Amino acid sequence: MIEFPKENGLYWQAIGGNNIDQISGHCYQYTDIVSYNRKREASTLIVDIGKFDNHQALNVSGSSAAIPDIRELLADASWNLKAVFLTHSHPDHLNGIVHYLKAGFRLPELFGGKYTLMILKQLYDEFAVAAEKRPKFHIVKDGDKLKFGSLDVEVLSSSHTCFDSFGLIIRSKDAVVYHTGDMKIDNSTCFRKPTNLRRLKALAPEIDCVVADFYGIYDDGFAVKESDTYKKLTALIKKSDKDKIFLPVYPTHPEMYLIAFLAALKLKKNVVFFGNPDFCGYLKLIMDYGISFDKMAAGRIKVVYGHDKEDLKKLKNNYVVIGTYNHVSLAFEADRHNSFGIITAKTFFNPFKGQLNAHNIPFVTVDDYPELQGFGHGFLGDYEYLNSILRGVLFIPTHCPVYVIDNFRELAAYMHINLIEPTPRNGELFKIKDKSCRLYAAQPPLWLVVSYHGEMACLTEVAQKATSGMGFLKRTISNRRCRRRFKMYLHARRRSEHHAN
Ligand SMILES: [Zn+2]
């Protein structure tokens, strides 16, 4: 672990999240060191403690997870760790909490949204974390102002694929940092506040640096909006002209349940929620969160939970089945004359596609219409827009393999996107002063691989290494393809500028 800095100032580090070729295990450190009456005092905030998806590649037999290493921050009082802020509820930002508690560590107080707490409680129950071991949790919302020692923090809502995702404005004497969290610029989100652009515009003159979620940076234009997905779904259902629509959704993306429901409601088709325990668990969470499908239906359509034959009869063969299923249940009496499928996730529903093929039921997939899937992270256009609001800020990319950023440099320079140099990697501590951010110290990055022996989590240190081609990376982009794509965008921009002149 890095030694406690000798100079006062604001420090930032990606403990996990800026991997060589992987995107998970997010965890970021902010430490401000100031002097009061000749006494130096630090204030440290950790943002997110996620789990690293590809723990198998780290080769510890019997492993069940891997987590970023925050042990030094927990053990050495000089850092003065004040709190952990959880930007949202996705496992790559949240699940490390439970493993630390199971390994016997005490964590500081947690801050996050109401939905994040609901998901965390589920994890506590799943891992049998005793009530007295659970850290105090403070529920925050858009606009809240918090103080952690000499760090002032303001909470900003962000558009992402779950409820209650937040970004942060982190303010010290030396700099003002906007930590985006997972985010896209989408003002069409349903049932929650979108990315708070109004506040960002107001704060623009003060913001020096943006610690940004660059996950989607290799796609041009704006990220898919929830309204795009809704419009596409509505159009496809209408065009199919079929009585029964099969619309499976990815269980952990609650916004898709809602968008699918709203599309059915718009077309006055009844809704059947039907799926595996995972789906039903999230459906219950959405309703516990305060969303009532029956209230939204307001008698215009019927809503059925399950596939009881008597209930289905009342729907008069006019319905959309929203859920997670890998077969066309006999209960629905689906055939090619009365049914149509809309597949909203890439590989997850492959067995279901097979079923539709076997019954000759027509269907469309995300390969035909990418906007069916939705997307939680900003594309290049989102960041181009952010850069136009926050003129001259320094971008500090995260949530992105290092090679993507290195390939992006030439295009970024052309677009006047001011990128930090060198690209930060896990384990590197940077010192931020106004719009400059320089490498201060580094250590070899490592992961803590978690294995369970009965109730107790054991942690094994493993040095970070490239794990290309395995698991999660298959969904992302190769070094070569990424380089070519950025070159293409650069040429397109040069050409269009040339034509404009
Ligand atoms: Zn996320």
How is this structure best described in words?
The chain is globular and about 80 Å long. Helices cover 28% and strands 27% of the residues. It has 501 residues and is of the alpha/beta class. The longest helix is centred in the C-terminal third of the chain and has 22 residues, at 479-500. It has helices at residues 71-75, 91-94, 96-102, 114-126, 197-203, 226-240, 254-266, 277-289, 293-297, 309-313, 350-358, 380-389, 402-414, 479-500, and strands at residues 9-16, 27-36, 39-47, 63-68, 81-85, 109-112, 137-139, 145-148, 151-158, 165-171, 176-179, 209-213, 244-248, 270-275, 303-305, 319-324, 339-342, 363-364, 394-398, 418-419, 428-433, 436-442, 446-453, 456-463. It is built from 14 helices and 24 strands. The strands form 4 sheets. Strands 7-6-5-3-2-1-21-22 form an 8-stranded mixed β-sheet. Strands 8-9-10-11-12-19-20 form a 7-stranded mixed β-sheet, with helices on one face. It folds into 2 domains: 9-222 and 375-492, Metallo-beta-lactamase, Chain A, CATH 3.60.15; 226-372, 3-Layer(aba) Sandwich (Rossmann fold), CATH 3.40.50.10710. The structure holds zinc ion (ZN). Residues 88, 90, 160, 182, 376 line the site of zinc ion (ZN).
In short:
The chain has 501 residues and is of the alpha/beta class.
